[in-house]
Design goal:
110 residues; 0% strand; mainly alpha
Length: 110
């Protein structure tokens, strides 16, 4: 009888531990995928802004720079979330300064 109870608790433990691990992994991957998508968009908008700036079109350069800032902020916040899930405090501090840089990029055209 004790073996049955012990086996039951062992199976229950393994099931819940697996469930928590899967949830952790899904949340981390989701945050990381959001970062990848948004950082790619931010880079593209910065490239466009640079081209518009070279052509002398400051209005379009600023519009693209503001879009880059929005996506850069979203990307950085999702990466902060991923590192929070991973409990990586050192990278979180670095990313908070990166977040401020993205905000400055968006505010340069005001």
């Amino acid at each position: 009888m004790n073996k049955i109870i012990l086996t039951f608790f062992l199976v229950l433990y393994l099931f819940t531990a697996n469930s928590v691990s899967a949830s952790f992994s899904e949340d981390f991957n989701k945050s990381f995928n959001i970062w990848e998508n948004n950082i790619s968009l931010a880079r593209n908008y910065l490239r466009k802004a640079e081209l518009f700036l070279k052509d002398g079109n400051y209005v379009m350069a600023c519009k693209n720079q503001e879009k880059a800032s929005i996506h850069g902020i979203l990307a950085t916040k999702s990466l902060i979330n991923a590192f929070t899930i991973n409990e990586d405090e050192d990278n979180i501090k670095y990313l908070e300064s990166t977040l401020n840089k993205w905000k400055k990029i968006g505010n340069q055209c005001e």
